[in-house]
Amino acid sequence: MENKQIERELDDLDMALTLLKRDYEIYFSGGAKLPPYEAQRKVEIRIRKYSGVTSLNYAQRFRYNNITARFHSYVDLWAKQMRYKEEGRTPSGSVIQTSEKSKRTKRKESVDSEANHFQKVFNDYLKSKEKMGEKTTALSFEKFSEQLTKQRETILEKYRCADVEFYVAVDQGKTKLKARPVKVESSRGGS
């Protein structure tokens, strides 16, 4: 083989490896349904073609060895990523939750947390009313919770805040329910 042809073929092999790496990145990010095994096989055949060629000069041999080393390190990386994907884990070892399951879990935690908060506020409200000598017989947690949910939605929309905190206060001898918008704290560095 002549030098120019070898240089062109090494350029093509380098480009094929770059494209193969891109195809695997697309696959692992969810952009393709199947891994690019066929393209990997073709690159591997082209790499093997040069393993026995003795007419490479030092620069070409160095370049070929560099491409081969990159290919093998990518193959190892892709095998690990494939194993993680099949096991449903991330590279850090944590379990990947499906997006729908994750959303349901977060929604349930949010509803549970909200219900617990409403129950605490309701209990505080009853205690304060009893302490102030006010009637509590007509109060039910269901109606109280519905009222807080409506108020919460109104305040979230009006103030565009992260959440709403409800609390009980006594004003001029009467028990009152108060709400406070909770803003998201920005995480700024420095001091």
Overview of the structural elements:
This protein has helices spanning 3-28, 37-51, 58-87, 99-131, 141-159, and strands spanning 163-171, 174-182. It has 191 residues and is mostly helical. The protein folds into two domains: 3-87; 100-182, no CATH class. It has a two-stranded antiparallel ribbon with strand order 1-2. The relative contact order is 0.07.
Helix content: 55-70%
Shape: rod-shaped
**Structural class category:** mainly alpha
How large, in whole angstroms, is the Cα Rg? 32 Å
Question: Helical region count?
Answer: 5
Q: Biggest sheet: strands, sense, closure? A: 2 strands, antiparallel
Order of helices and strands: HHHHHEE
Strand content: 5-15%
Roughly how many Å apart are the termini? 65 Å
How many structural domains can be distinguished in the coordinates? Answer: 2
Let me know the number of strands. 2
Q: In order across it, which strands form the biggest sheet?
A: 1-2
Mean pLDDT: 82
Q: Which segments are poorly predicted (pLDDT under 50) over 5 or more consecutive residues?
A: 186-191
